[in-house]
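We give its fold:
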Amino acid sequence: MTDETPPKRRRFVDTTPLRVSPAFARLWFGGAISGIGAQLTIVAVGLQIYDITGSTFAVSLVGGIGLVPMIIAGLWGGMIADAFDRKLVLLVSALVGWSSTIGLALIAWYDTGLAEGDVPVWPLYLLATLGSVASTVQMTTRQSVTPRLLPGELVPAASALNGIAFGIQLTLGPALAGVLVASVGFGWTYLVDVLLFSTMFLGIITLPRMSPSEGAERPGWKSLKQGVEFLRSAPNIRMSFIVDIVAMAFGRPHVLFPALGVLVFGGGPVTVGVLTAAMAVGTFLASLFSGPVGHVHRHGLAVGRAITVYGGFALLFGLTVLGMQIGLAQGWVADVGEDFGEVNPVALGLAALALLGMGASDEISAIFRGTMLLMASPDEMRGRLQGIFIVVVTGGPRIGDLYIGVFAAAVALWFPPVLGGILIIGLIAVLVRAQSSFRDYDARHPTP
């Protein structure tokens, strides 16, 4: 009788992984706190480059320049995660990332003594790329560590908890960046990241030793070729990567935020923080109330619908910017202080609502896609597939940054999110319909 009782439906995320594995809990908390600083630095670098150049395209180059190194780092990171002690890989990548942030802080303090027009931009691109490479290797390795710390049935719950951590990071980091840059400057803002980053080391150092599996392939062409060949024979996993690239390439408006804060909504750095945090609030809320997703079995269909909703909210965001640029609601302004000037709260609120919806729908998609990858992939391929997965989730937004930067400069600030939303809705409809195995994917019988 007991065996036939249906499982209790959860409303909130399952926190069991934090209770049963102290090592996972320490790594999770360390990553959540240090991630706040990482997001702070991402926003601060964009603000600093825009402050120096006044160019949205220059801001978009942060992602464009780092794209190829991040792809290499993701692929290589997956191979070294399978071939070496994963604790050591995490520690080395964390040290590299920490050093890049220290470099940004030193440069910011040095630049304050230079005359306007004499401040070089290339060191910011270099250190931002170095930090992104280190972060890519670290994310790849952390994902492959999770099954070593938790029983298999708790891995999906761990994915949802990681979504909560990411939501916290994206909520607090950008908001904190906007306030700190406006009040104390770039040097002290980067120093806050240096201090927060130290919590990551506590989570890594206390991990147990994680030796590679017996017979693990050494990093190199043969190892990479095995991962790629498996992916070729895994249409459902492959399609989960493709639909995410579509969403991120055409629906990620972050590089517009500095210009929107100055030219459209007002509010400067604070508006940048609000817009970035709004998307993170959606991510956080979707993860917090992720309990019901455990009862959804048609994961491919769910991913398609979630990304379609994402495209709809991207279109709403673009239409809001369009409305402002053609003069709608121009009289609805409020003074938010001498440092920040006037801001349009109506338009900013509508844009933030659209971004919140984008964050929520993207997180629902991510939970299902992540579960598909973990449950449908063999253990011996997990590191390399996670490496390819990280390339997708980090490389897609960089392509999106270039797309936004080019079309914003060539047409208008509103154009790329409007066109992107329409493209996402149309392409996802075509892809899901064309790949029947992805549309019919059943989590009770996972197939790659």
